[in-house]
Amino acid sequence: MNAGWSMHDEACTHYEDMINNMMIGHDFLAREFDGYTPRVGWHIDPFGHSNANPRLFAEMGFEAWFFARIDYEDKAKRMDDKTLQWVWKPFSESLGDRVSIFTHTMRDHYSYPTGFKYDVVNTSDGPVIDDETLETFNADQRSLKMYQYALGMTDNYVGNHLFIPWGDDFTYQNAAMTFSSPDALIRYFNKTFDDMTLLYSTPSEYLQTLKDQNIEWSVRYDDMFPYADQNEDYWTGYFTSRAQAKGMDRYAQGSMHSMSKLFSLMVLDE
Description:
This protein is α/β, with parallel strands linked by helices and 270 residues long. It has helices at residues 15-32, 52-59, 72-81, 92-95, 139-153, 175-192, 203-212, 243-269; strands at residues 40-42, 64-67, 85-88, 101-105, 218-220, 228-230, 233-234. Helix 5 crosses helix 6.
């Protein structure tokens, strides 16, 4: 997913830097994996989202993008309205319907559900044990908790498939610890409940299930700045902070643009 050199900022970066960032990563994948091209964007942590980014992602061939950070008041309303997912049509006043991209907002940030963190950076939740002969057996309780969590998500999303992020900052450091508990949870959950199925999946697979359901989505046209995660807590300081570093970045970007233009002219002359 995404596959840029980084998950670039959307507020302070120049659009050429956004393009170059994605080009470097996508060029690597195309060379190393026989022309593979990602089709899902993954911008879970930028502090607000611009109109420029969905436009660029759409024109890069992305079918959708996923993110976590959204203004707390906007998010509360969208949760109530079941509109955490929509079709974004950026710059519609000039582009009309020519450019659009499906957008998915994660309900509970980009983290595991509470009580299901299984990695060396968080061991307080303890493992899922589905061996009923052991005194530490707890898969029944954990499965019920996951069932209730997923059921609660149906209040905020449409369709009969739900996307639950499984990870967090600095996780996936220990494969055995990371996957043994979900494996046990999935086994016991699917054996216990007949109206819901738990499985490993990917954003691309989830996107396909949404397409298959032919759901009519709401449409958004505006950008998502400024971002606030609670009352009077706006993440706007980085717009103007570190002015010297940002000035150097702009200078470097301008020099790179000039060099690219001169190189292109030289190639054309040959």
